[in-house]
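Collaborator request, handled under Task 6.
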Amino acid sequence: MFKENINEIEIKTLNGYKPFIGIQKLKKYAISINTTTFSLSCSNDHPLCVDIDNYRFLPVSDLNIGDNIYTINGFEEIINKSFIGEIDVYDIIGVKDEEAYFTNGILSHNCEFLNSGESSIDEELFADMSAKCIEAKIILEEGNYKIWDEPDPSRVYVAGVDISEGVGVDASVIQILDITDIRDIRQVATYHNRHIPPLEFANKVHTILLNWGSPLALIERNNCGAQVVDRLAFDIGYEKIVSYGAKAALRSRPQMGMIAHTNTKYKGVMNMRYFINEVRSVTIQDLNTLKEMRDFVRYPNGTWKAKGGYHDDRVMSFMYALFILEKEITERYFDILELDDHGKPMTIEPMDFGVATFENATSIYNDFEVVGLNNPYMTPVVFGMGYTEQFSEMETLASEGWKPYGH
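Structure tokens returned to the collaborator:
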């Protein structure tokens, strides 16, 4: 039972009409049932309410003629039930603040995945993708910053950023993706830290973005994320921050950064799943990121998040990075040369953002932190400004047991 509310359609629930995100079409084996007043054709496992006081639902396949189900008129008896074969069925997704709604006057649960939840990647895909996970080429900051492919000025990068409070629970994460070829998207670096405060993290984000040529950055703004976005934009002057979602979240004025809202998050997850699950054009090199993907599930109300006891910070930052390929964002920053059959960007060309300056990813760190460079020796060091000063410092080092390499 629907009604139109200005620019959106709402569906009837126990608590009045509520907006919802969308409708999912599936082909399933179905059953038709009739009460004295209503009729419904639905999938075999579609849950209907049999006990409103205890909020209990049973799959329609477990119900029999004579059983009572809850309708907008109260409980009514099932007077007919028949199997009708495979048909198209429609599942309402993401009803706001509700888990149940009325379909054809009968109270249904809001999700077919009532018991365990649908994982964002299945076990077969997890196995295929995990075979491509490898150890990082460069590991910095006690393992927080990992680099698989070194920055290349000829490539196009994008950053996705998710922000936590830095108190040791959730993590602040940066994902760097190479999107030069959308048919071969690669995770090239990640930063993950549970203890870094937001303002300090803003400086870290800026430093790492400079490593990758100052790419477009899609940064979650909600909660403490606002501190990071505003510091980057107004204090540091970073100009390539993507803004999206303020209108959908009914914000009274435009705001910089990515506004996390039920609608935008769902769109971002569907976009991420399209490139990972459907097109299969994404290579994830970090096993920890891939494990979070496996434990990122759809809940009965249609929302996506980590299973209980797990984290999704790496997934959310990955989702924000891939959001750059949501067409309405892509066309702001790239020339779209080719779309695929589903209207998604397939070939893009960067617009002129000015000269991209790449700072060596290891230049800002002490050389002792660099792991995996296949170089056991320190890089050359030059002391002082002149011969006398240099000789004095070399003499001091020699007295402490150091000697030039090769001697």
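The cover message to the collaborator said: "DSSP finds eight helices and 24 strands in the chain. The two ends are 85 Å apart (CA to CA). Please let us know whether this matches your experimental observations."
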